[in-house]
Amino acid sequence: MDIKQLKYFIEIANTKNLSQAARNLFLTQPTLSFTIKKLEAELNTKLFDPNDKSFNLTQSGKLLYTRGEKIVTDFDTLVSEIQHMRTDSKEMIRLGLTILFAIQYMQQISNFIATHQNVDLIITQNGSRKIQEMLANDELDIGLVSFPNTQSNAISIEALNTSTKGYNVHVVVPENNPLSEKDVLKFENLKEQRFSTLNENFMLGQMLLDRSRHLGFEPNIVMYHDDLQVLLYSLQTLDSICLLPIEYKAIGALEGLKWIPLQDKNDYYPIGVALNKGKAPTKAINDLIGEIKKN
Q1: Tell me: the pLDDT tens digits for 224-249?
Q2: Nearest 5°: phi and psi at 272?
Q3: How far is C-alpha 243 from the chain's CA centre?
Q4: Which terminus of the chain, N or C, has less C-beta within 10 A?
Q5: Domain annotation for the chain: domains and CATH numbers
């Protein structure tokens, strides 16, 4: 057992949700699940109740959690004290990106952190509209965002020509919803529906409002949330539908839901690297951009 495994175990125990823990740790669910299974095999015991989907701890798990929290705290304190003994100062880079982009570019971000130990990378997760606003207000140094540029007077966005160039919008509906019989959907088909949606900090949250109002109806929004997985879980409970990138399906797909392509002028969003026009990027920021472009 190593300190990383212990930290992963504690994060799952705290969140009681594997997908949320994976997002917090910038890992994929399969990677996190494999790590915990390996830890249980090494300790020759179950740490979570296998018959409980809420990730409740077994007696062994409770013991490891209680003792492990102190070990992790002491370890982090030790690392911090040693790092602060260094005489050279670190550069701080404030990076903003969405949950989806954090997962898609996880490997590149991890590579940058591993090769730039003189940089403190502070990551903020939010919607692309909010991240653009924060860049314009000098609250961030760099953003990984989707177009369009809503702060064109203050920031620039360079489109990415990587394996991940953008995302395609789909309508996620419960399988018992009549819309699930459709192969493709237009906004006109959504008029009488209930929506669980991202808020206006996200491109899709604002797009829902703009396109609905353009077509002469106010969307019936029954839930706002900035966690994509929470939105998916709400659909069957609230008898609602949601607009999400199809690229998220591979990460957080749930049974009983169907993902249907949206046919609309706003059904695809390219993504890019955003910078404040008034600030020249440092060498470290350019290195981070270069790493991102390797995706």
Answers
A1: 998 888 999 999 999 999 999 999 88
A2: -160, 180
A3: 16
A4: N
A5: 3-84 (1.10.10.10), 91-164+270-292 (3.40.190.10), 166-269 (3.40.190.10)
